[in-house]
Amino acid sequence: MTVTVSPARPEDYPRWRELFAGYAEFYEVELTEADVERAWSWIHDPDRSTRCLIARTEDGTPVGLAHYRAEDSPLSGTRGFLDDLFVDPAHRGGGVVDALLDELRRVAVAQGWPSVRWRTAEDNYRARAAYDRHAVRTPFLTYAMDAR
Predict the structure, then answer these.
(1) Fewer CB within 10 A of the end CB, N or C, for the chain?
(2) Which long-range contacts (C-beta less than 8 Å, at least 24 apart) are formed by 13-16?
(3) Domain residue ranges of the chain, discontinuous segments joined by +
(4) Would you state the CATH architecture of domain 4-134?
């Protein structure tokens, strides 16, 4: 399957929404309408760093997404951070993840980022196999402190 990747466009909204909902469902997160609208608005807001890459099939159908942003680090400067990556289950195994990560690497080079980091669930073995082709696993753990 031939896959092309480009930034999200306004006309991608209906399919992006389906893909984003699939991502949330995979991680058992209930999305509200406000969550969806917030994410979409961030992607297109020039004052925010969140952006979205969309992977498309030959006929232009969106089948995958990658939400990423700049992340400032006092020790290493600005680098990239991949928040979300999701591929329609019907299109997994067809090179969509590789196409998204290859394009994200090109974005990182263009932005001057020395690296792109991301997290995934420890038991997300299929995704981890793909990630292992593109990156090195770091020894850092993620913590979440409740601030409510």
Answers:
(1) C
(2) 13/40, 15/61, 15/62, 16/40, 16/52, 16/54, 16/62, 16/65
(3) 4-134
(4) 3-Layer(aba) Sandwich (3.40)
